[in-house]
Write a structure and sequence with these properties.
The chain has 261 residues and is of the alpha+beta class. It has two domains: 126 residues, MutM-like, N-terminal (N-terminal domain of MutM-like DNA repair proteins); 117 residues, Orthogonal Bundle (Helicase, Ruva Protein, domain 3), CATH 1.10.8.50. 25% of the residues lie in helices and 23% in strands. The protein contains six helices and 13 strands. It has a five-stranded antiparallel beta sheet with strand order 1-7-8-5-6, with helices on one face. Helix 5 packs across helix 6.
């Protein structure tokens, strides 16, 4: 959290900053600046300029500035974007339920008195000027069946690890991936390149439907499996205990009855 769906909400919220003149920045947390980004470079690129558009690739939010620079915003596990004191998401799963301004890591002040800020309790996100996006894979909202087939056929890694590889599919996180594979009746440990054409098409159907449905419902945490992703949890379809294990260091839940390897 946040996954690609949440960052799409952030992108929509960030559109409120378009065409507004940036008057000043608060960039006191140097740890939050990534790559070669420095406070001076950010101020030079942003102050006196306007936000032209808000874009997104996977979990990366991109703000294009009229000085031809782009600011990349990553949100880690607990980051949220707040524009003019209005949060695109009020609460994140697995984050604090407090709303403390001391967690503001990056603030953009506009000349009309408004602001845009990243509030991130755990400091796992970051700000980067002109980030390299060439290594990001197909976006979760726009990936095609042909692209998904190529992603799967290129590796014998567990399918969950392959789908969560941001250089393959940008935007899928732990919650979405478990939900998609549960709905598609695919064991997360199954080799990615073992799926036949029929199973791949079924996976793609559930992939697209899950993203569309959860984006409408309010986020990656709104899946059918979510409330059961706990120690001792039961499959909401079969009522039997879920298996719990790790893939690529990420806690994974699956049903031994209908998600067969």
């Amino acid at each position: 959290m946040p996954e690609g769906i949440e960052v799409e909400y952030y992108r929509q919220g960030a559109e409120a900053s378009i065409s507004r003149v940036i008057e000043s920045l608060v960039v006191d947390d140097l740890y939050y600046l990534k790559g070669e980004t420095t406070p001076n470079k950010l101020r030079k690129a942003l102050i006196g300029n306007k936000v032209l558009q808000a874009r997104r690739i996977g979990k990366l939010l991109l703000l294009d500035i009229d000085g031809e620079d782009t600011v990349g915003l990553r949100f880690g596990m607990t980051g949220r974007i707040i524009v003019d004191n209005k949060a695109a998401i009020e609460y994140l799963e697995f984050s604090s339920d407090r709303n403390d301004p001391k967690w503001d890591r990056f603030i953009v002040n506009f000349d009309d008195g408004g602001s845009m800020r990243i509030r991130d309790p755990r400091r796992l996100g970051g700000v980067e000027l002109n980030p390299d996006v060439s290594q990001l894979g197909h976006d979760l909202f726009s990936i095609t069946i042909e692209e998904l087939s190529q992603v799967l056929s290129g590796s014998s890694r567990p399918i969950k690890a392959r789908l969560m590889d941001q250089s393959m599919v940008a935007g899928l996180g732990n919650l979405l991936t478990d939900e998609i594979l549960w709905r598609a009746s695919i064991d997360p440990r199954r080799p990615a390149d073992s799926l036949d054409e029929k199973t791949t098409r079924s996976l793609y159907k559930h992939f697209k439907k899950t993203i569309e449905e959860l984006a409408t419902l309010g986020g990656s945490h709104m899946g059918t499996l979510q409330d059961h992703r706990i120690s001792g949890g039961f499959c909401p379809k079969h009522g039997i205990p879920l298996e719990r294990y790790k893939i690529g260091g990420r806690t994974t839940y699956s049903c031994p009855e209908h998600q067969k390897r």
